[in-house]
Design goal:
Belongs to the myelin P0 protein family. It is found in: Membrane. It is a single-pass type I membrane protein. Its main location: membrane. 17% of the residues lie in helices and 31% in strands. By secondary structure, the chain is an alpha+beta fold. It has 2 domains: 147 residues, Immunoglobulins (Immunoglobulin-like, Sandwich), CATH 2.60.40.10; 86 residues, no CATH class. The strands form 5 sheets. Strands 4-14-12-7-8-9 form a 6-stranded mixed β-sheet, with no helix packed on it. A 4-stranded antiparallel β-sheet has the order 15-16-17-18. The protein has a 3-stranded mixed β-sheet with strand order 6-3-13. A hairpin with a 1-residue loop joins β8 and β9. The termini are far apart.
Length: 244
């Protein structure tokens, strides 16, 4: 719905239904801005993340245009102002986001985006982008949920590299043949046929006591975090009881 801020909040805080919402969507569309923002953004611990916000106004951009970003923690509580823009950016100088908010937008292009430096998990919460370009002051209120997590670090960090390779590295012909159970695989010294794994599985279940793990990409890992090797080689090494 179209909304306008309550008196004295300068676009931050509580919002109530606007007059245009009561008059009908046609009137509202003629008077309001349209704001778009990503509903959910995932960030990684310590790595800069951008919160995208774009807008369209029916009026020319002037120096009266303002941009406000507000934040509510995931645990709940009051909304707090973390950024204000009017001709120049005014990032917050207090609170948890002090010295961590930067302006990456361009109002001439309808961009009101900001960036957060060194995000931490306690930053998780809801962010709201609000734009006013008088006389256009009525607009929708899109919300962005920020989720900060650690990057995957399983198997000494090798797993993250392998997962990235899954989408771009083709399996070796020998490994693919083994997964399909091609006859003659054992005679070529590649071990017995192995079904395609849908998740990392211990190789020892198929090939004896070795504790390597294979992924659908055709790469195998060792419990010590050694470099990944093609599955075909892992099967050979397993048959020789030699860690891959």
């Amino acid at each position: 719905p179209c909304t306008q801020p309550t008196a004295g909040t300068r676009g931050v805080g509580t919002f109530v239904p606007s007059r245009c919402a009561l008059l009908g969507s046609g009137v509202c569309k003629a008077l309001s801005l349209e704001i778009k923002a990503s509903p959910k953004v995932q960030a990684f611990l310590g790595e800069q993340v951008s919160l995208q916000c774009s807008f369209k106004s029916s009026s020319p951009i002037t120096e009266s245009l303002t941009v406000d970003w507000t934040y509510r923690p995931l645990t709940g509580g009051q909304m707090e102002s973390i950024f204000h823009y009017q001709s120049v950016p005014y990032p917050t100088t207090v609170g948890k986001f002090k010295d961590r908010i930067s302006w990456v937008g361009n109002v001439a292009k309808g961009d009101a985006s900001i960036a957060i430096q060194s995000p931490v998990m306690s930053d998780n919460g809801t962010f709201i982008c609000s734009v006013k370009n008088p006389p256009d002051v009525y607009h929708n209120i899109p919300q962005t949920m920020l989720i900060v997590t650690e990057r995957g670090n399983w198997l000494s960090g090798v797993g993250d590299r392998v997962v990235r390779e899954r989408g771009r590295r083709a399996r070796s012909p020998h490994a693919a043949g083994l997964e399909r159970g091609v006859p003659g695989g054992a005679e070529r010294g590649l071990g017995s046929p192995m079904p395609r794994c849908l998740r990392p599985v211990p190789l020892e279940k198929e090939q004896g006591p070795m504790a390597s793990s294979c992924l659908p990409s055709g790469l195998c890992l060792t419990p010590r975090g050694a470099p990944a090797v093609p599955r075909a080689r892992a099967l050979v090494y397993s048959s020789l009881r030699d860690p891959c």
